[in-house]
Every structure is written in structure tokens, then in C-alpha cells.
Amino acid sequence: MAGIHGGGRAYASAAPPRPVAAGRPDLRGYRNILYDPPLQDRFAATRSFEETQRLMAILAVLMSDSGDEVAPDRLNRGLPAGYTYLLQLVAHDCVQSPTPFWALPGAQAQARNGRIARLRLDTLYGGGPAACPFAYAPDDPRDTARTRLRLGPMRGKAGVGRADGAQRDIARAAVPFPAGSTPKPVKASSELKAEPPFGDPLIADPRNEDNALLAQMTALFHLLHNTIAETIGMPKVTGGVSTEAPADTERRFACARAATTMIYRHILRQDLLPRLLHPEVEKVYREGGAAALLDRDEAGSGAWRPDVATYERGRVSIPLEFSHGAARFAHAMVRPHYATGDGFPRQPFREALLKTSARQPAMMPLSAGWILRWANFFPIGTPALPAPALNFSRRIMPLYSGELRMETLFQPAVPGAPAGLAFQDLISAVVSGIWSVAPLIVAVRERIKRRGWKVDPFDTSPLTAEAAREAAIILWLRECGGAAVPAEDLAQIARDPPLPFYVQFEAMHDLGGERLGVLGSILMAEVLYGAMLDDRLPGERRDGTLRDGLARLATEMQLPGRFDGVPEIGDMAAMIEFIADRNGLREACPNFL
Amino acid sequence: MERQLQVIKFKEFGEMMKAWAAKPETFPRDLQAFKEAVEAKPGASPPRDAIAKVGSHVTKLTLVTHGMDELVIKLSPAEMITNSEKAITEHGGYPLAPFYAGIEAAGAQEGADHSAKMEFHAMRIADYTMGNCA
């Protein structure tokens, strides 16, 4: 998943990307959903690449939403803004590409998905303390074991480079030598002219520092893990060394990791997905479990493909229609600005993009203005504190905030093309060889029928009929400034809309932008429910309470009863309050709740 | 408060300014024409994204041109300065355009002392009140 990419280092696109629809690309770790579509059923398969690129440039411009303010009727009161960044974390937990598709010239040699286990929080844990020690804090002064995730202090008021206060930021490492310089031994710290900039985030997946808001979400989950680790119980330290046997340390870490992941998954099932998905679709997956999944072989054997040779590919690889199609909808949820906490002005999102170790190492760690008051991002009741300024996300519609079109942050994916994330998303869809929308809907409906769903949610969508779909898209494109665009260009876009655009359009058209539509919901649900159903944690069941799941986990891990004091955590608000209670953060400054 | 002008493409906007400076007679005749000059042009070849967005509360446009022998001081609305000072005092940083990433000037950082921030603010006003950015 490309993510917002604002906080990362710039990619140089040496040559324009090329389409892969004409032949199977070497996309390891990726596949098409359901099955490989025939050539004519792939997006833009019947047009030249240059023509598609031109149409995508037009569409990207039409998907622009300028202005500082979000009109009240474009705010999504069912999805507070924190869910935008939870979704970005989820996306990073499902997909890990070394290079975004739009930046890949021709051969696509680097196009692979490195995330082979989904929704396991590998995005936080990486390969564990042995493989990613930088992400973990020592358990004892001698650093004999690491089982907690690192956190770092926020920036203090004392001056540049100084840090104090509670550990509310991700941890960051100082880089003593400027980029490109030849490192020389430093005899004394006084030889450094200034405090070195904090150029490297100490987290397992640096994409989780794409922007300051996501970095805060990452810090929040680090806090959750550490809270769970403390709940299990940290080892005794004698003489600066942990007295715990290595095997016990491993088991304790594994248990804390699994419990944290179980809470995260429980929140996805109980909170995020019910808010986000089309109600009928969500009900099918929630009640149907594995039997509802469409992205499997038709015999229902449980494998994605009937033959063993392709089983591994089906199970491990991610559908491109998720990674380079549906999941892009969250970009449309990004607001132009956020109220981050009490006493701070609304912060432009461009500032959040700049406040990263990659872009502004000299201004790290994050200052108090970027340490989030979580009640501004999730619906948390905080009667003892001033009323939070709850930020709602933007409704899901094919309009990207002007903050995501800054040329200095999002350079054109192709020379001469519009700068910004919209074009990057669209051209990545072109390059990836995903399904075209119309045949994809047909294929999904066929699979729904074979799977025996009691209802076909497409029956109720006015966009299911091809003619109505095209007319609705053309009408909207005209309303968004497309009146000046040749009618044939609009017709071409409407006949074969790129999936990232269509999923957002469907959400807007059918559900007012408050939730995803039928197709978008199915594409998201297949991946997210599929990951949780087929790769279960110890003690995890798809239904039942979290407390029961944690109790089973603790028993299986031979740490019975360790989670007895953990409350039922069914949503992000409850998770944040749990963290606050266990870490004395209810009265924190800046406010945590 | 919505900005008077939200610049989205700083480079393109700067190029437009340079062109208008060279030929002031080509400057848009009124606010509507100015809006049209900077708005998105999806039907153009190649399609062009919006360069800037004029705030919905803006109703007037003034063009100032002058010669080398004339000093022009452009005073900002007092309310705008008061609002900035209040924001710095109460909240922290002075927002800079994104292409200034990593600026090291004293007072430009969020974590700087309040007095340094106010000095930086004052110097920015000094610079931009008379600065021509030519």
C-alpha cells in the first residue's frame, strides 16, 4: 500500500511507468481478486497507455477539492478522523511495497508485496526483537532482552533538539552526520556544532511515520502493547540483569504481542468495519464467517485455489483490487486541517506531512502541538475535561483535499501530469493490471450466487446497471468541473472507470459518502475478514467476547489469568481509555483524553 | 479562518506572477478573472490542476504596480496581525509554506521560545511589507 507518502523521502520517477495489462507482470505477493481476469476484462485494456494516462490526468484534476474548509454536509459524523489513520495503519499491516507502482519504470523489477501475514501487526512488530531490535526498548539496564516497543519523549520547550516530558511520541534516533558527508570519528560531543537531527524513526515500518498523525497512531499502539506487557508482568531485575529464563521471555513477548493483536482485530470487527462497510455486506461477513468469503475456490474447500501449486500464492498474496483499488478510498477522508489538542490551532495537514523525521529531522521529536488529544479523534466521553473538538473525517467521495495536491510534497508521477496523490493513485491502478469495474461486478455477483449468499447486495444498488452507472458518473464529472472536458473523454472515463475512483464514487452515490458502497465493501471485507478468519491467533474466535478470547490465549500460552483485569475493549475509544487508566494519562499534559 | 488565498502550486503561481510583472496589462481585470486564471482547467491539454483557491469571503482584488523609484509599503489588515500574534502566543508555531521545509531561522520552530517566535514574526512582517520577491 502506497500510503499517503507525504512524510517519506521522495521517489524519483526516472521513466514513466508502463502498463502491465498486456502481459502478466512479475508482481510477487500480489494477485487479482477471484481469478486472473482475461485481458479484455482488465482496466484500460482496450486503450493505449498514453490515452489512458491523458484521461487519468483529466480525472485527477476533477477529483480536486480546493479550499481550507470542509462544508458541514461533507463531514462524516459516523467516522471521526482518527479512523482515517487507523485505516492507514491497517493498510500498512496488509501491504508492504518497496516502491510505489507509479514510480516504477518499465520492468517493475521491484514490485512485490512483502507483507505475507496480514492483520498480525507485523507493521508494528516487524520481525520481532531479534530482527528489528531498534523498535524495542530494553527490559533491563544491561539490555539482555527486549519485549516492549520503544516510545520517545515529545519535544520540550527548552529549545531545538531538546526533549522532555512523558513518552508520547515514537522513538527517534539522532543522525550525527549530514546526508552525503563522510563520517569522521567524534572525540567529544562538544565537537558537534549543534544537537544532531532526529533523522530516523525507531519503528519497525518507517511508513508509519508518513505523517505526524500516523506516527501518533503508531505510538498509541506501542503504548497498548507496553500496557499489555506490563499487565502480564515484567521480569525482576537484579544487578541490572533480568532474572527471567530466555524461554519465558520469548513466551511473555509472544503472549503480549498476540493479546495486543487480538484487541486490534476485535476493534476492527466491532468498531471500524461496522462503521465503514455497507450494512448488508458487513452483516454477511460478520454472520457468515469463512463460508461467506468469495475470494476462494468454488468448491469451498477452504483454499483460495483448488490446486496446491497455486495455494501459496492465493493465501499469501494480496488482491491488487484491494491494494491498488478499494483501499485508496481513505485518501479521500483526509481533512485539510485538524484540531490536534487543547490550546493549539487547527493544524494544516501539510504540516502533519512535514512533521516527520524524513522531512524535518531538525524539528523532531514532535512538539506538544502534535501530541494528539485522542478525544479529538475518537468519540471518547471526557466529562472532567473541556469538550473535545472532535474532528470528523471527510465523507468518502472522489474528491481529494488540496493538502494532498501540494507539488512540493506530491510530485507528478509522470512528467507533465498533475501533482498530487489522486493522479498517483489512478496511474498505479493503470499500471497494476487490475480488473475493470464492469466485469468485476459481474464476476463478484456470479461468485455471490455460487457461494449461496441469501441476498445479493448489488440488487439494491442503482449503480449495478451499466447504463445507469455510466450516466451517474458522467453527471457527477460534469458537476465537478467537467463541463469543459470533451464529452467523449467523460464517456470513456465513465465506461471504464478506474477502481480507486469508482469505489469512492460508489460510496458517495449510494451511501452519501458515509460508508463504502457494495463493491468497495466486498473488496475490503474479503481481505480484512479473510485475514482474520484464515490466520487466527491462539484462542481467537470470530465471535464471542474479547475477554473470553484473552482468557483462552493466556491459557494456551501457559500464562493463565494474566488478562483477568483487562476490560472488554470493543472500540478505539475503549482502547484509549484503557491505556489512559493503566498509564495515569487521564490528567496528562498535553491532554491524552 | 479561511485564508484569503490558498496557494496550491507555488511554482506555477510564481511563474504567473513573473509573467504578470513583465506585462502588467495582462493581469486579470477583476477578481472573477483572477479566479479563472488560477482555477483548475481539466479540459486543457494537458489538464491543469488548480494553482490557487481564493477564499470565499474575498470580494475585492487590488493590483499594485510601481517603479524602481517608488517605495511601496503594503500594510496587512490589523486584524490579521492580531490574529497571528494571538495564535503564536497561545498555540505555538508560525506556519510557513511547505517548500520552506527544515528552515533553521531562529524562532521558526514550534519549540522555540515565545520571544524568538515573536521576533521571527515581526521580521517576517518587515520583510513582506516591503519585500518585492523579485
Automatic annotation (TrEMBL), chain B:
Top-rank taxon, per record: Bacteria
Name under which the protein is recorded: Uncharacterized protein
Source organism: Falsiroseomonas oleicola
